Amino acid sequence: MKINFKKLFDNNKFIVILSVLIAVVAFFVVKITMVPVGSRTLSDVPVTIDLAGTAAEKADLSVIGDTDFKVDVTVTGTRSIVGGLKVADIQIEANTAVVTKAGTYQLELEVVNGAADLTYEISPGALTVNFDTIISKEIEVTAETGNLTVPEGFILEIPFAQPETVTVQGPKTDVEKIVKCVARADVSGTLQETTVSRGEVSFYDANNNKLEFDQYLTYTPQTINVTVPVYKQKTVPLTFAFTNVPDGFPIDQLKYEMSHSEITIATPNNAVDSISELSVGNIDFRKVDVGSVITLDVNLPSSYRNVDNITQVTVTFPSEGMGSKLLTISNLNIVNTPAEYNIQLVTNRLSNVKIVGDADVVKEITAADVVASIDLMDTTVTTGQFSVPVKISVPNKGLVWAAGEYTVVIRASEK
Prior knowledge:
By secondary structure, this protein is mainly beta. Helices cover 11% and strands 46% of the residues. Strand 4 and strand 5 form a beta hairpin.
């Protein structure tokens, strides 16, 4: 298809459009050639705050607050160069030479990569920046609640925070003001069991003024729980058991006195309801002599409370009406001998066996009344000589027994 230029130029509308286009092109050509200088404003140009090698760095200072600073830059210069500039082509830095200690500064801004044939106008020309040292501080947490009571038979312990400390981090100026941290739980009224609630954390200065900080001060952990311990108490008998009691001895008839016969204890929740007595351990009957005083420790599980604060119990055995004598026992009996061994006594007698008990009975006791048994039931027997314990009893004589521990030497040989 051929264009008929003659007809086009005879068309008045075409002539008008063409004239306008030629005029626009001519305008730009003249402007570029006759007016080569132009200006352009670039928005949101980032600002760099570099502390490397400065006094601020040596003072361990940091920018406090927002570091995402941006400004507008108006660039003037050769129109063709200015027109091609982008935000990434301009680098602006804040002058930090004036920063020597913590505080708020007006930092002048400058373009550090500017071309010689271009001029720059920065808006604003300075920034307000706060500097301080970032520090951490560990602070003990105090637990607080509303007004609390417990019913009769219960104990209200001091509330405590968990964890017990928080670590606060932020500007030194702010952190050093903190002297107390409080976790307050919304708990009040009458309690019958231990309660755990989340605490609202607050910080206070030396004058007990509540401190308010911005987002630049943080603490960890963020969650602090407040525990209000409630214990149920109960008074129970103190007991102990005898070990190594001779066969047939009337242990129930033995008299003694305990320094404490009962104790009041408290446990979390209702655990104390299942406790009917508290044992303070065992007494080796072989150590009981006339007037013996034996001390036993009172031990409770870590979660229990010793309300009476009784830590030891002494058990005193009577001396009045009691007597003792020393005997030599020659009648030694070996029982439960292993079938594969021959057993012989190397020790043929026991000297200075102390017999104690009711004075009237003891004075009549002879060696013939005493039974000395060597029971090998629980003994590992091997070839050779070794020492074994002797069980001594005074049967059918009531409250009479042997005080002390006794051993003999035996010889074992294979059959």
